[in-house]
Amino acid sequence: MAASATPAGKPRQPSISQLRAFAAVAEQLHFRDAAAAIGMSQPALSGAVAALEEALGVQLLERTTRKVLLSPAGERLAIRARRVLEAVGELLEEAEAARAPFTGVLRLGVIPTVAPYLLPTVLRLVHDRYPRLDFQVHEEQTASLLDGLAHGRLDLLLLAVPLGAPGVVEMPLFDEDFVLVTPRDHWLGGRDDIPREALKQLDLLLLDEGHCLRDQALDICREAGRTEGAPMTTSAAGLSTLVQLVAGGLGVTLLPRTALRVETARNDHLATGDFADPAPARRIALARRAGAARTEEFEAFAEALREALRPLPVRVAGRSA
């Protein structure tokens, strides 16, 4: 049989239906039985096999009036055809799984000043509601998280906003107040009406550069009228260390309210104070790429997380637009 070639001189690409028809005949060695097995009419089946032979330029079958035999080439190519059809089946199964929400991998990036305090709630939600989700967590600072989101290394971010990053959509979760953490005998410890102006001259301890919480604290201090020359120490890489420095009498610091129980509950050398309304606060949100393929899924996840966060000392946001 002469080959039917493309302009480049190569055999034409076979279709899936042609391979399916040939694989059925190769298994049944009977056109009528093969047609019944795959729900195709016998003439259509015969035409598909003939078209495959023409496309490949190879005789696949030896036809007689009483039986069908595979040619030597047909025996070899039947094995390949079955493998191709199995691979196509796997592709369709994977696509079906991808269409199902909350399956497959979801890579969440989270900042260090959120991770220890919110992840228990997040992980509990995922375990209880989304058991088929392959949930992966990456703790990094904001700049690294945004880079990971932009380049597809991460799917969602859990961090403080606003970000002001192009191509990023913020899904607000909640607002939380900052609390002043002081040594036990500090004059502001235990108060619930601390004016922001009190921050002007306090020995304030902050996180190292790169932490968004440091920047937020500095913004609060500037709003309170704190000058650049006021005492300020930057000597901690994490909130736990920061709190220990306060307990040692080196100064005071600001903690988000969600971190308060974890960081201060067992330390008798600390006191806390609340600011007068309106207290300085931060907003925590999920962030995704604009136009993300899983936008509806991510929005549903944000809404479920808002409900799960209600028992925490925060003001839960409404559904994002």
Q: How widely separated are the two ends? A: 64 Å
Individual helix count: 10
- CATH C-level class of the largest domain: Alpha Beta
- What is the number of E strands? 12
Oligomer: single chain
Low-confidence sequence ranges:
1-5
Structural overview:
The chain is an alpha/beta fold. It has three domains: 14-92, Winged helix-like DNA-binding domain superfamily/Winged helix DNA-binding domain (Arc Repressor Mutant, subunit A, Orthogonal Bundle); 100-172 and 282-314, D-Maltodextrin-Binding Protein, domain 2 (3-Layer(aba) Sandwich); 175-279, Periplasmic binding protein-like II (D-Maltodextrin-Binding Protein, domain 2). 41% of the residues lie in helices and 22% in strands. The strands form three sheets. Strands 3, 4, 5, 6, 9, 10, 11 and 12 form an eight-stranded mixed sheet that branches. It has a two-stranded antiparallel ribbon with strand order 1-2. A two-stranded parallel ribbon has the order 7-8. The chain is rod-shaped and about 105 Å long.
